[in-house]
């Protein structure tokens, strides 16, 4: 870039007849630079602006924020990065502000915060758990209006993991807890919950007997938050916020439960790259979590019995945890129950009256396997073959008038109708009227009776 003084000298020397090469040697600049300034392609004191890498993605960002004005910039950054954007996050957010992409929301700007306090958490001391109810679940999931996500966060480092569950009852809570601590690589010495009914009695905060057995099994203590004190477990609350805004807000309707679980796992791993400063040392959340002294967990989960209701398909199959299991034929559309004790390698399928009709080995969750019993396959094939016919279909362009038997039946019906007609049953006989008239002629009138 030429200074204003160099630009003035270059124009003066050019007017005096100097060549571009001579001017470049005199000023110690490149010939192409001198030529650009002499032709007016560049202005002194201003650097040439490189092409803005954000411009190709500007319309996409405008449309996404027009559809959802409260979409997080980090979530939008994840999307445009997947589309090929190569800039950094700070450059991306600066471009959002420069082009004024996000619509203004007056209620949000008028909202005010509240005072908070930072609670110290020693390494490996506490894991905070919380259910996150996600509204408007896809219809294909079969979980009703809300999906249920159990989030567990290490209070010291902030690393979190989450597991989708079908409901929030006790067996699903135990199953999700076990999966979360395994994803975290171990368990802290204490678990913290709010006053959920499956863990404690909400009125008193005392741990229930059933969950006390779970805590003893994993060798941890249980802490219950005071009532109406959500900030006491602020680490997991912030993880809930991230999961809701950066993942759930963008989940499409066509996504299956297994695919959605994969998406939340990827987000949780990506969040381990967040920067932290501890004692003046810069590190990531993942590096900080790797230094936490976590306890080992049992090889198998706590043996709670899981029970879910399913509908038998036309192929005599029952869906469970991303796999299909066979049942005896003749039950399409029937409601059955899948029974599975956590930690066991088998599951049972029972009727509504709890009569077991099938027992299978349990396939890995989300494996997409179809587990069939040989007896069920043979019975289903026999039933299908018994109902199969090799006869040719009936022809529909055939002349078949009514048969003699049909004509005779029609005549019989016509006779019954004739006999039942009231007009046919009325018979008029005039001889009765003639006899009555003869009797009336012989009877004297009232005047003649009075004379006598």
Key attributes of the depicted protein:
452 residues; alpha+beta; Nucleotidyltransferase, domain 5; five-stranded mixed β-sheet; 14 strands
Shape, per Cα inertia axes: extended
What is the terminal-to-terminal distance? Answer: 160 Å
Number of domains: 4
Assembly state here? single chain
Low-confidence stretches: none
The fold-level CATH name of the largest domain is: Nucleotidyltransferase, domain 5
Helix count from the secondary structure assignment: 17
CATH class category label of the largest domain: Alpha Beta
* Residue share in helix: 25-40%
Please outline the major beta sheet: 5 strands, mixed
Structure classification: alpha+beta
CATH second-level architecture of the largest domain: 2-Layer Sandwich
Structure description:
GO terms for molecular function: DNA binding. One of its GO terms (biological process) is transposition. This is Transcriptional regulator. A five-stranded mixed β-sheet has the order 3-2-1-4-5, sandwiched between helices. It contains 17 helices and 14 strands. The protein has four domains: 35 residues; 52 residues; 165 residues, Nucleotidyltransferase, domain 5 (2-Layer Sandwich), CATH 3.30.420; 82 residues, no CATH class. It is of the alpha+beta class and 452 residues long. It is extended, with a radius of gyration of 43 Å. α1 packs antiparallel against α2 and α2 crosses α3.
